[in-house]
Amino acid sequence: MLFCPKCKYEYENDIKICPDCGSELVSELINTDEQFNNQVYYDENKDYLEQLKYFLIENGIENVSINFEEDRNLYSLCTDTSSKFKATTLLNILFKEELEKESTENNEESDMSVQEVNSDKKTNKRQGKYKNALAKYNDYFGTGIVNTIIGVIGDLAFIFDFYNIRSNGSIITNVGMISIFSFFLGSGIYYFVKSQKFKPEIAKEGKLTDDIMNFIIQNYNNTYIDDKINEKIQNIDENTIYFIRTAFITNEIKNRFNEIDDEYLDNLVEQLYEKIFEE
Predict the structure, then answer these.
(1) DSSP string covering 156-189
(2) Residue 253: which of 271, 239, 265 has the closest Cα?
(3) In this structure, is the dihedral angle defined by the CA atoms of residues 180, 183, 189 and 190, taken in order, positive or negative?
């Protein structure tokens, strides 16, 4: 008996193609409920990941699963280790084609070129959202200082000029004013204290970044990478080659360094790509 890998229906051996979906029949079904751990994409929309899952299956990647991450409240599209590079490459090509189509449809409304649109997609819609620990520290620290200064100046002005304020304003107005300035003071202290929690992360992230940058720059150059992916970049356009190269770099980093945040890694791979291929 033969089976449809997509519809899961059973057919006689003389039937080779599924009459419902057109998929080629196989001798046994892959257990699509098995959980794999190599993440290639994540999203809040499970239905969208289901579409990507079947896209990968139809392109020869059978070991695919959708896992739910409770800590991030997101669904992850995962494969086995041997399929991860191919899956990442296929998804990047798919996203590129979708963006080119969207760019063509909206060409009259935007002056952005296809290449610029693709650059927004290079990190699976996440580029530009990532902030490193130092940027977070500066944001919180700066907000804390500004709010504290406003709160202190406002409260001091209210205290030193209390007689005139009390004479010229109603009780409700006075209470409201001091409440506002006290809120600024309180939030300023909160942001300042919060900023201090990022200090250990700054040193840790900085060391990790240096280690990864040194590892890639010392062991990989543009010729070496293109030799490794030579079979995959024959007769394809430059934009698609970009996705294959970044997928290779990402895979090499993840094989060497464990438990790296995806947004952090996307941002770092973009920097490495520029150093290796564009400088």
Answers:
(1) HHHHHTHHHHHHHS-HHHHHHHHHHHHHHHHHHH
(2) 265
(3) negative
Q: How many helices (H) and strands (E) does the chain have?
A: 10, 5
Per-residue model confidence as pLDDT tens digits over 129-140: 567 788 888 888
Q: Which of 40, 55, 81 is the last residue of a domain?
A: 81
- The answer as to whether 183 is a domain residue is yes
The count of structural domains within the chain is 2
User: What is the C-alpha to C-alpha distance for residues 106 and 108, in angstroms, rounded to an integer?
Assistant: 6
The answer to whether residue 148 is domain-embedded is yes
pLDDT tens digit sequence for 147-202: 888 888 877 776 666 555 455 555 555 566 777 878 888 888 888 888 888 888 88
Residue 107, domain member (yes or no): no
Please, what sign has the CA dihedral across residues 267, 102, 116, 224? Answer: positive
For 40, the domain range is: 2-81
